[in-house]
Amino acid sequence: xxxxxxxxxxxxxxGGDAPGMNAAIRSVxxxxxxxxxxxxxxxxGYDGMIKGSIKRIERHEVGNIIHRGGTILKxxxxxxxxxxxxxxxxxxxxxxxxxxxxIVIGGNGTYTAAMIFSEEFDIPMIGIPGTIDNDIFGTDFxxxxxxxxxxxxxxxxxxxxxADSHNRVFFIEVMGRHTGHIALHTGIGSGATGILxxxxxxxxxxxxxxxxxxxxxxxxxxxxxxxxxxKNGGAAKIAESVAEHLPELESKVSIxxxxxxxxxxxxxxxxxxxxxxxxxxxxxxxxxxxxxxxxINDEIVFTEFSDxxxxxxxxxxxxxxxxxxxx
Amino acid sequence: xxxxxxxxxxxxxxGGDAPGMNAAIRSVxxxxxxxxxxxxxxxxGYDGMIKGSIKRIERHEVGNIIHRGGTILKxxxxxxxxxxxxxxxxxxxxxxxxxxxxIVIGGNGTYTAAMIFSEEFDIPMIGIPGTIDNDIFGTDFxxxxxxxxxxxxxxxxxxxxxADSHNRVFFIEVMGRHTGHIALHTGIGSGATGILxxxxxxxxxxxxxxxxxxxxxxxxxxxxxxxxxxKNGGAAKIAESVAEHLPELESKVSIxxxxxxxxxxxxxxxxxxxxxxxxxxxxxxxxxxxxxxxxINDEIVFTEFSDxxxxxxxxxxxxxxxxxxxx
Amino acid sequence: xxxxxxxxxxxxxxGGDAPGMNAAIRSVxxxxxxxxxxxxxxxxGYDGMIKGSIKRIERHEVGNIIHRGGTILKxxxxxxxxxxxxxxxxxxxxxxxxxxxxIVIGGNGTYTAAMIFSEEFDIPMIGIPGTIDNDIFGTDFxxxxxxxxxxxxxxxxxxxxxADSHNRVFFIEVMGRHTGHIALHTGIGSGATGILxxxxxxxxxxxxxxxxxxxxxxxxxxxxxxxxxxKNGGAAKIAESVAEHLPELESKVSIxxxxxxxxxxxxxxxxxxxxxxxxxxxxxxxxxxxxxxxxINDEIVFTEFSDxxxxxxxxxxxxxxxxxxxx
Amino acid sequence: xxxxxxxxxxxxxxGGDAPGMNAAIRSVxxxxxxxxxxxxxxxxGYDGMIKGSIKRIERHEVGNIIHRGGTILKxxxxxxxxxxxxxxxxxxxxxxxxxxxxIVIGGNGTYTAAMIFSEEFDIPMIGIPGTIDNDIFGTDFxxxxxxxxxxxxxxxxxxxxxADSHNRVFFIEVMGRHTGHIALHTGIGSGATGILxxxxxxxxxxxxxxxxxxxxxxxxxxxxxxxxxxKNGGAAKIAESVAEHLPELESKVSIxxxxxxxxxxxxxxxxxxxxxxxxxxxxxxxxxxxxxxxxINDEIVFTEFSDxxxxxxxxxxxxxxxxxxxx
Lengths: 327, 327, 327, 327
What we know:
The structure is a homotetramer. By secondary structure, the first copy, chain A, is an alpha/beta fold. Chain A has two domains: 3-144 and 265-310, 3-Layer(aba) Sandwich (Rossmann fold), CATH 3.40.50.450; 146-261, Phosphofructokinase domain (Rossmann fold). The first copy, chain A, has eleven helices and eleven strands. Chain A has a seven-stranded mixed beta sheet with strand order 3-2-1-4-5-10-11, sandwiched between helices. The model of chain A has no long low-confidence stretch (mean pLDDT 95).
């Protein structure tokens, strides 16, 4: 595809929101403007693409959003887009607005939808990885991950004060249904005694053993960080299971929850989003399509949607192993 | 009691920890030193008083704690202290260390214990209201309340980002088993559509009505703040009840939890704690006993423990009513 | 003046911005709507009143601003408004838009302008005290003061880390050209060794003496908080003067600066702003004019503009004296 | 060198403090304990090595420091260590305490000292890059850089509120005497109109041009981020120079200053510090010496001190160029 074919670029955010999405939108708008292209915002993700919620975004409209959590384009999950009729309608919307290419910001679901769509229709699509879960292959970090870590660690720091004052064990649940990135980093960053993630298979018995060792060493309070998707259940269930073995421990449960998705993005996420947004635009103008843009080892790289979704993005083994040394 | 009788002052924190307790401890130590008195720290509240966990605190030991959450003296709930034998042992500990007077920092339970003890034994006691719940009579604010509000509001601000991005209703539960101070202020401060507290008796039907009105006015997302102790159950239960009436609303639940107890105290709480700590010391030296120190209308006041515990400290009616105008 | 005369209320922010101004604007809009009145926003303060920068604000437009620093109405200082011609033009703008009453949010300058204007023209005016300086009489707290304290204290906490690590003395300048409220509270809240404010007249010699005593007691690092308007000059000048007496001290200077004006308002400031905004509206509807609304001892009170500007609002003496005991 | 030779490892922090140093110290202590080695803390950097300020650190002593800014070992710059006599005394201290190896945490000065020392004496030395400046070669990030960015961006976000409210240009100075890493990332992350760093050579004329373009495009407020070491002088001087060309702009200056060094470390910095601390220990046990440990592309790498100090660690050109597209 030649450069001159692309004059109008649409951008949307889809799936769970992540801090930094606005910085990415801003970057798409600014970079497009720099190259003389127009940007159209699609509201509420693919649902808005189907329903025609789309309007031009001028550069001044993104003038004060780089620091804001959430997404000015709103986000949603669209079931209709996973039907051929839905996608057909979406295509017609794009055509009706003379959209030449799309940039989609989101996670796995967003990418899957974009992949299917771009196989069926001749609208070039570039994906920007925006999800707090960091579970997209083809980039060291997804937009929002770093901010979510800082939000989680800040919450754990506060809980630490009360755990310390009461000599308690706290079981703290952070987001991560399929991956343990958030829990692993939060666990290391908070000096947790135990970290339970889908990838490390720590059993209740092993956790009890770690807590016992801590008590023996004179540890007065302990933090256990669990990912939603670890095999032993949520934090409340784990606390109960542990209590059967260690009834003398005074324990409490805390579920950090949705606040992990919000807040002003960290500097890291803003810079990452800015780089990915601008690179998505130049990629489209260079004729790329059906690819996720990412940064690996500080270099911009492109990955097929299919690989971005399915290739392994597990935490480093050495990082998981290190937790045994430090706790 | 004459001033010269008091040379050694013990200080303890008890019950739930609250941000600013360390600032109060520091102030007690510094003010005592100013008047040439020695301070002894009792660890883990009344439990430590019984078990003799007590040691001298030098002024430099409190040199870098004013900004720290939690309590360097640790805290606990002591059941033994509510037995005559427990209190007798506690008294003997104090005598063994030549303690002339005690300052206790905590909430209702702490005060009740102090009241009973000071009726039985000739150790003057002054209480400093330290609890995030703001449910002690005889002071406009308890230490920790202001910080807990800022922690809660910061969490709600983050949830707001994701609520806004997804056009969702969030049911957010904050602390407050018997009083709605935290929920009321957090609700007003976050512009909540609904606020459910023990004191306002809002029913599910009324809440549904408020949410409906919001939708009618074009409100795209809503926040509902609930105190633990409101009559309709926790946030999860309320969300379910609302869903029966408004199944079309996309809703989520978040329980802020224990992080409300931690974190660096706000400036307000540090100044409050500093004033109350110093005033507790001068009160003891002035011969006061069995009283809670507080600040009302910017003046130091003293209240009998019995009144501090039992007199009405409900939120202002006008504040509750205002929420109908603003939401 | 009767209630029915007032149908259109204008609102503006003027002078230095303060966190919580947006919460006050929101409250004015919501309360006005509740009573069936329309609100018009005037942009850039009195300058916009002169130039006709005015437009209707709908209730949904203030739906997501309660947590935002700054002011959506922008602010400015207007020299033209202090001329009779300027005020005449301003009046004509209001008449042209059928404005029946005005609510002005700001500090001393804002109030002075409102007082002059309301003496010349028959537009009822109510002032809401919005300034980080807390120097308006007739209210315990001005909007923004509490947030500025937390911003300053958070900055000082960070500086404390590096002061502690290096065993240094830090001279930290906070805002306050005419009043020491911010410096006094920040100083108490950070456990400062010295606090220099316009109201306490501490000399360099006395400060040197305090620092010397600290060193003698083994204090390894010290913080000195100075208000811009203290009599000894800015933090840099004070640091130099101290160095002449104590050349062995390793010292650094930090000027917190304009960041004290920004940031998300604290819960306290949002609740305060919400109460004052709603009360300003009901005051206008009750026929009040030429008054500042405030909260004293948790009750809404009204003060003549002239008193609000000129009556003494110095920090409590006892608070200033306490710093000698605690440092 | 064989593993069994190393039984006692000393650790120190030197130069400017950086958030995450404590997390690194903790990791050194924990990893050493894991391998059955003892750790000795040296206080106040090389100065303490000379003067014998050294004592055993038990593992529980680092149990609650991972989240604290500053350094529990204190830090200082030692001129004496740059004399042969000073180093000889330092060596004797180490020998007197039977220290077998040293881990030094700091920046360029720290590394230079370690390099000289390890060339003269047979004490293996490993360096951990701890400096907010990110100017050490051989690691993608130095400990403290990420936190400093978030501190700076948070300050700029607050200033943004007031810049936006007043339609002002703010000239904001961040740390960086020799490198522009902090300013560049802060500038991109805050959407700055201009970024002046030692590496990009932007002149006043070019900056004026950028500001003019912004005004022409309707930009109402602008942020200019300058590194201390840019060629045009500090923020105040630049503001003056700009004012000569654009006298109509209302501008303000803010110097973020020392608060950039403090505060709780970000999750990223804690994880980085934990990994580097543990790797420094295993490196020593593996017989490595005179090397800096770093992480490049998520892998632990070792670099000669001489390279770590002198090899080019400038910001990526593409990152600098991108700022022209996005501002």
